[in-house]
Design brief:
The chain is an alpha/beta fold and 277 residues long. It has a single domain (33-272), classed as Rossmann fold. The chain contains 10 helices and 7 strands. The protein has helices at 5-16, 18-28, 33-39, 43-50, 77-86, 125-132, 178-188, 207-218, 235-252, 271-274, and strands at 95-101, 114-119, 153-158, 162-166, 192-200, 223-228, 256-262. The chain has a 7-stranded mixed β-sheet with strand order 1-3-4-2-5-6-7, with helices on both faces. The longest helix is centred in the C-terminal third of the chain and has 18 residues, at 235-252. The radius of gyration is 18 Å and the shape is globular.
Length: 277
């Protein structure tokens, strides 16, 4: 499906009904105070947060590039609230660190579906996962300014819903056994349902990203791309990266969903990513 103005206008109509939607959301889900405050933001700020690619709409006319297959993530407020509820710790929804492993046979044997986050060193993976667990303060996700901080596969329980796996970063300062560790996991982990591949919006898809993409393709894994650090790119540069990545996805991949998830390093609300787990 192409990225079309009607889809974004549909999103705008939703935002025009924020007041009514807020009431429905609060009745349907137990939202946090922080999320309720987000929903009360002025329309322009809320639009920018929920639809971060909206500013590029005029450059993504549906008939301009017939060879591209473009989609935007268009969540409802109810979708966002439901996603937040997954990551909100409570006695009935336990969110916790489980264990770490350097080999698949050391990984916990769990019946729940798994999602994993993978990306090159310093792409912002640990920061994103830390933000996802912001409503579970007991869960410690270590974030470092130095690339290659994560050396093991880290497993986190997200209630009864799924297990989230933080994979070591590839590229600079990757663990020596990175390929054996990650390739074996991606190839043999039977309950792996979705892989989130993080790509830096400043540099785009790198040679090391291509290696990870090739593994996902070879093992026929369903995966999506997450475009990180979009607040560090100018609109023109971001537009260029979006077009290049979407063309790459459409022309050179089979298992990648034709949908890009943009996130900003400074955002505190990343629940849009969790909706597609």
């Amino acid at each position: 499906m192409k990225m079309a103005a009607p889809g974004l206008r549909h999103g705008m109509r939703r935002l025009l009904e924020v007041s009514a939607a807020l009431g429905r959301v609060c009745r349907a889900y137990s939202t946090s105070q922080a999320f309720a405050e987000v929903l009360r933001l002025p329309r322009r700020q809320l639009t920018k947060l929920v639809y971060p690619l909206q500013d590029l709409e005029q450059h993504l006319a549906p008939d301009a590039r017939s060879d591209l297959c473009l989609r935007v993530f268009d969540p409802s407020l109810e979708d966002l609230a439901r996603a937040e509820s997954f990551f909100t710790a409570s006695p009935r929804n336990r969110i916790e660190y489980l264990s770490s492993a350097v080999r698949l046979d050391h990984a916990p044997d769990l019946p729940r579906p798994e999602v994993c986050f993978i990306g090159r060193s310093n792409v912002g993976k640990s920061s994103l996962i830390k933000a996802l667990f912001s409503l579970a303060p007991e869960v410690e996700v270590r974030v470092s300014q130095k690339p290659g901080h994560t050396k093991k596969m880290n497993f986190f329980k997200v209630g009864k819903y799924f297990t989230l796996v933080d994979m070591p970063g590839y590229g600079y300062r990757a663990p020596e056994d990175f390929v054996d560790m990650v390739e074996t996991y991606l190839k043999e982990r039977r309950n792996l349902k979705r892989t989130f591949l993080l790509v830096d919006s400043v540099v785009g898809i790198t040679k090391t990203d291509n290696i990870a993409i090739e593994m996902c393709e070879e093992f026929a894994l369903p995966y999506v791309m997450v475009l990180t650090k979009t607040d560090k790119s100018s609109k023109g540069h971001l537009l260029k990266q979006v077009l290049q990545i979407q063309k790459f996805v459409n022309m050179q991949t089979q298992g990648c969903f034709p949908q890009l998830f943009p996130v900003r390093k400074k955002d505190s609300l990343y629940v849009t990513v969790s909706h597609h787990t």
